[in-house]
From TrEMBL:
InterPro entries: Glyco_trans_2-like, Glycosyltransf_2, Nucleotide-diphossugar_trans. PANTHER family: GLYCOSYLTRANSFERASE (PTHR43685), GLYCOSYLTRANSFERASE TAGX-RELATED (PTHR43685:SF11). It comes from Spirosoma liriopis. Residues 6-166 form the Glycosyltransferase 2-like domain. Pfam families: Glycos_transf_2 (PF00535). This is Glycosyltransferase. SUPFAM superfamilies: Nucleotide-diphospho-sugar transferases. Transmembrane segments: none annotated.
Length: 254
């Protein structure tokens, strides 16, 4: 039997993109889907778009303390066997939820699954393909490498069993950029992820996104997150060196 899946979308003033996000979830036609949109009282047309879907989704519209708080609200409301979050400027590719549901149905002991994702720009054109291929290559190595040296997990292409929150709690709301990396490292203490080579999602980078405009701050917080979980001086040095190299690359391609 296919597990139920809950998808959480945190949103704030993403009227330009959120319709595509919502459509990408609902068009999956997954038979046991719960979709929760948590909006921080957007001042653009985001709420009007979300409300237009009626009871096809659950809309929570209230002030929050930022993206991580919004995600946690959705995760606490969720009742699906499998959970994930999909930001309001990203979108699923066709067939994603069915592939995810079938994986967990066939692997009852698997705790979490991560797949591949395209990187796209504001208009949905594929960009930074070498970056995607590089991370894909790293994910073929052991978790200590691809989780310690750098965060190669694609956040919108990652799914886990909701039951793990009873053991690990929820996302760390003190983190603005790397709540996902911290969560992966906490999940890793329970079990390495199952890695799929299938493209699950499109991850959008645009001028207003944190990954597009604040990447240097993001990598700084990324390193601080690593320090919480890895004591090895070698891993810490390699991670810091890798971050510095990636920042220089991003300065040239953005």
């Amino acid at each position: 039997m296919l597990p139920s899946i809950s998808v959480i979308t945190p949103s704030y003033n993403q009227g330009q993109f959120i319709r595509q996000t919502i459509e990408s979830v609902l068009s999956q036609e997954y038979p046991r889907l719960e979709y929760i949109v948590v909006d921080g009282l957007s001042t653009d047309n985001t709420l009007a778009i979300a409300k237009s879907y009626g009871n096809r989704l659950t809309l929570v519209a209230e002030r929050d303390r930022g993206q991580t708080d919004a995600i946690n609200k959705g995760l606490r409301l969720a009742i699906g066997d499998i959970v994930c979050w999909l930001n309001s400027d990203d979108y699923f590719l066709p067939g994603t939820l069915m592939a995810v549901g079938q994986f967990f149905a066939n692997h009852p002991n698997a705790l979490w699954l991560t797949g591949d994702c395209q990187i796209v720009n504001e208009s949905g054109q594929v960009i930074q393909e070498p970056v995607r291929q590089y991370k894909r290559l790293l994910r073929s190595l052991v978790p200590a490498v691809y989780m310690g040296v750098t965060n190669t997990i694609c956040q919108p292409a990652t799914f886990w069993r909701r039951s793990v929150h009873e053991q690990l709690g929820y996302l760390d709301e003190s983190l603005r950029y790397t709540m996902d990396y911290d969560w992966w490292l906490r999940l890793l203490t329970c079990q390495p992820p199952a890695v799929s080579r299938q493209l699950f999602t499109a991850f959008r980078i645009h001028q207003a996104s944190k990954g597009g405009s604040e990447f240097e701050k993001q990598f700084a917080e990324d390193y601080e997150t690593l320090l919480r979980h890895y004591k090895s001086p070698m891993v810490r040095a390699l991670h810091r060196w890798h971050n510095q190299a990636i920042v220089e690359v991003y300065k040239r391609i953005k």
